[in-house]
């Protein structure tokens, strides 16, 4: 019943989203009556957000994987520190500086150890690729308001490697969302690329 409900939801979202995205594209690409620059910026922003909604709608079909999570107690700080150790050689080869701020008590939650380990490894691996040679990578992890917060800030590299790395983060986001978390990544005005992930702290008795 849940899978059928999700299938219907995907269908009901997909049709109007595809139509709206198509009309916005037509308005942007219409050479005969191109919109003024100010309106074009708004349309481009609308198209970008419609593309995000389409991606999220398509992802609804993967949520059956939540039934396949092999959940157990996991210390996320241990996963992070182990991954940092594995990546130290790659950072050294780029002559990049690592600043690590893993603060406070252990960061335990309840989740699929293998999937979370895969997500942390991919996320921090991408953060290393974001970091320009000779740059700086800051990794923070802490507990805040019943959530585990993982942040990575890198002095951003440029070019095709950056685009490839951004594409790989979609799988990380999916794993985080399967655990009721969230993940976002974007550059700021100073050229620092920031990845932010939040994961709710779940106790075994709450499952």
Question: Could you describe the 3D structure shown?
Answer:
With 207 residues, the protein is α+β, with helices and mostly antiparallel strands. Helices cover 51% and strands 24% of the residues. It has five helices and seven strands. The protein has helices at 2-29, 37-59, 76-93, 113-130, 160-178, and strands at residues 71-75, 97-102, 108-112, 136-144, 147-155, 182-187, 192-200. The protein has a five-stranded mixed β-sheet with strand order 2-4-5-7-6. Strands 1-3 form a two-stranded antiparallel ribbon. The radius of gyration is 20 Å and the shape is flat. The two termini are 21 Å apart.
Mean pLDDT: 82
Helix-strand makeup class? alpha+beta
Supply the number of helical segments.
Answer: 5
Can you write the helix and strand succession as a string?
A: HHEHEEHEEHEE
| Cα separation of the termini | 21 Å
Major beta-sheet overview: 5 strands, mixed
Strand order of the biggest β-sheet: 2-4-5-7-6
Shape: flat
Which stretches are poorly predicted, pLDDT < 50 over at least 5 residues?
A: none
* Total number of beta strands: 7
Strand portion, in percent?
Answer: 15-25%
Please give the radius of gyration in angstroms.
20 Å
Helix percent band: 40-55%
């Amino acid at each position: 019943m849940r899978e059928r409900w999700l299938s219907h939801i995907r269908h009901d979202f997909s049709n109007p989203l595809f139509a709206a995205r198509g009309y916005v594209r037509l308005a942007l690409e219409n050479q005969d009556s191109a919109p003024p620059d100010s309106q074009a910026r708004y349309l481009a922003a609308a198209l970008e957000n419609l593309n995000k909604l389409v991606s999220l709608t398509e992802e609804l079909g993967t949520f059956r994987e939540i039934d396949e999570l092999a959940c157990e107690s996991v210390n996320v700080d241990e996963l992070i520190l182990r991954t940092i150790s594995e990546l130290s050689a790659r950072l050294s080869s780029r002559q990049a500086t690592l600043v690590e701020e893993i603060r406070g008590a252990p960061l335990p939650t309840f989740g699929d150890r293998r999937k979370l380990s895969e997500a942390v490894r991919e996320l921090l691996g991408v953060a290393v690729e974001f970091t320009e040679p000779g740059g700086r990578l800051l990794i923070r992890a802490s507990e805040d308001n019943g959530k585990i917060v993982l942040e990575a800030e890198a002095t951003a590299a440029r070019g095709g490697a950056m685009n490839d790395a951004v594409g790989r983060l979609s799988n990380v986001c999916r794993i985080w969302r399967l655990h009721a978390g969230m993940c976002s990544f974007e550059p700021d005005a100073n050229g620092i690329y920031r990845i932010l992930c939040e994961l709710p702290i779940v106790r075994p008795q709450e499952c």
